[in-house]
Amino acid sequence: IVQTKIDLWNRLSADGRPAWQNATERIERLAALHAPGTYVYPLSARDYVEGTFDGDSERVTASRFSPFLEALDASLVARTGRSRLRRARDAARRIGGDAIVQIDGDLAMLALPTESLRAELLARTPKLVELDARIEMQRTQLQNDSAARRSQLLRETAALGEELELALAQAFDTTDVAKLRDRARLHVLVDRVTAHAVEAFAKRAALLAVEPLEAIERASDTDIPLRFSLVEAAAVAFGGQLGTSLWSGDPADAIAATIVLDAIGGPAIALVHAISTRFAAAAAETYMKRELIADLRSTIFPALRNDVAELGERIATNIERIDGALDAALLEAGRTARDADIGSVERALAAVAADDVSARVASMRSRRSTIERELVEIERIADAFLAEAPEIAPADPATEMLRRAHSDPSLDAAAYARGLRPQRWRVAVVGALRRGKSALIDAFAGRAILGDEVPGMARFPIHVRYGERHEAFALDAEGAWGAIETASVGEAARRSPVLVLTPWSFPRELVLVHAPAFDSGDIDAEDIALMAARSASEVLCLFSRQLSERELSLYERIADFGKPMLFAHTMADNESAGERRNVVELAGRYLAERKIPTTRIFTVSAQEYATAIAERRAPAGWNELGALRETLDGHATSHMERLARLERSSAEIGRDLTRAAAEPTRPVGAPAFLRRLFGR
Known about the structure:
The protein has helices at 19-34, 45-54, 57-63, 65-110, 114-173, 177-181, 183-219, 230-237, 251-281, 289-353, 357-387, 413-418, 437-445, 454-457, 489-492, 525-534, 549-559, 577-593, 606-614, 625-662, 672-678; strands spanning 2-3, 41-42, 425-430, 462-466, 471-475, 481-484, 498-502, 510-514, 538-543, 565-569, 601-603. By secondary structure, the protein is of the alpha/beta class. The chain has a nine-stranded mixed β-sheet, with helices on both faces. The chain is globular. Mean pLDDT is 83; it is low at 397-409 and 665-680.
């Protein structure tokens, strides 16, 4: 958070301090409450600029701008800089390794007599010709697919232009003209309508971009040394930044998000500018909806269709760039395969013909030693830098209200996926800050597993499931769970995902996943919460009093994952019966309007439930936490029964196949239970 223009707040307050310092304290208190871990930087950009121009070092210091610049630099190093260095180190490791393999192959061939070299060349050539034909076939398929996809995308873009025009016309028709005249409100309206209209198109375009390429990647077996990163090629084509949370997961999701942002940043902005210009150019009573509708039909909407068409052209061009990257990778794979198969033989024959074998062997050995030394030095420099986790310093360490580690700000999706067992029934508990996620899990467990400190500390998912004794584990970079102290769960969840085992009565395969609060102020919080939901079998969404716009937007995105969704209205003990009923009815209406599916909305209070259990009485009649518990228990039990049936069926199939192999004279045909199992 940047508190600007402190040079205008130098008047002394009653306590003798400049007014801006008192304001800073108020901002820090609010930040600690609503965005824990956020840094506050009071500064004067004017004093910094003018002090720099005038050579006035005291004014530059008083501007307090330098700590802010240092924090920005540390943030870039921690995020973009470190990820770039990792990629550079890995690229050097790969290139150096390839060079060493080539040198070793050349040295091995130079040790053979001429007759053996010629025999090797004749033996290897047919296989290489076959490989070249396969690669050329894949390149031809890619080129044909590319042309067909471009035509399909441009057709869908034309349909998008019509759909967007219709959606905007309906929105303008139902919106008061005063709101349309207000540029800020108009922006909100147009952005929302545009994002909703473009979202489905963006997903289709993204799948159009990646699915054919993924098929070609799968078809390239170990014989084709294809080195191609789809997410890297897509990031370059669409102007993304590798290493950011957006471009570190599914490339289709990243492409779709980029297309939506491009639509909002292009056609939507142009539309708002055109409408606002017309309102500004006329008196308030002379330019109303009738005049606006006429302009929309005559000039504004035709211009919008052109802008959408240009958007489609840009997307098509970007997809062709990805295709081009794969085509180049296929060509390079052919050259690499050729060099690996006959390159060393050809170079050895050339050396024999030039009577230069001894000199070349000495040169290659020297070069090999040099490469090995350089690789060791690169690893040393890179690893030493990466081991130093840069700290983002607060402007005033003495007054900082809440510190948070910033050494590794993002969740490694691959490591997280490796740490998950596919047979578990995971329920992601998702919600905003202070919606009762920890209290709910503690109430289910019948003991304080997570405690009050977790809401303000956890940056990563905390998994809770059955264990014979209370234990805790943290996920490492390789996707393995290492034991930690149970008292350090909250602290460990600031750095990595955490697993807690507890002897509760839930089914053994049920895992409750405490997702970090998506509105905690952490830049990665929403992405990590979405990752937890995407990896879950079911999602439990918590809210209190009323579903906010931000909560609804997040739950819309979660609904796209196609997971079963339950909702719980938490902390309901502070409301009357009428208020609780109204909250649930209103939430149901909001969810229906957004087309967010929900099996049921529960009204719960973890505190009232825990108090009732402690007092050995039944919870209040309105408190449905027990019903929620039974629902989760039932879903997990059904899942475990399905797994058991599948295991029995697999065993029976194995026995049948074994009998069939032992009795080859039996009539061909699947057993009856197999036909029932597979539907044929």
